[in-house]
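Running this now, will post back.
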Amino acid sequence: MTSMDPMEALSMTKAECRTAFLRQNGEQYDKIVVGAIIILTDEENEERILVLKRAAHEEILPNIWEIPGGKAEDTDATILDALKREVHEETSLTVTKVYGAVTSFGYRMKKVIPPNEDGGEEETVWSSSLQLNFACEVAEPLDLAINPEEHSESGFVHCREVFNRELEMTEQMRAVVLEALSDPTMWRRPDLLALAQVPYVGDL
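Update: finished.
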């Protein structure tokens, strides 16, 4: 497996990204997912990160908190375009700058397909995804509006709420959020990111 800087993915197409970022077994991921780290400083000078709660009717991970993001599509010219589109679709916010990359992670999801009308057996299908996470700046004013088809709640939460497990998240997502909140280069000194290399981490 080749180790690459996820920032290089921003100028790639989805197909190019699948070729460049491989699973540990050397195979391509089925899907490329993008995630946006959006951090603001509140009136008490404390950092808060934007998270969304997945809708209760979602088939996969209902009621779980996550950062904005979603799948890159074939129609996205680049991964950066996918990131901008997903953030706008889920929050109505506009990404104006990408500061740097937070640790990426791979995961597998199972989908059970019921028998068709002609009979047959239930089928289980597994798919692999790579999530590339980026610290972003968004345009003001922050007219946040979530899509109720995908999420039921949103909020800028403090690090302690994530660390103390007050919000239900996957452990991979929790690690990404805590990493971003603990690293001031993600939101205060973007110029320092040029000195840091963020490795690609796959777990499949």
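Strands lie at 31-41, 47-54, 65-66, 69-71, 95-113, 123-138, 151-158. More later if anyone needs it.
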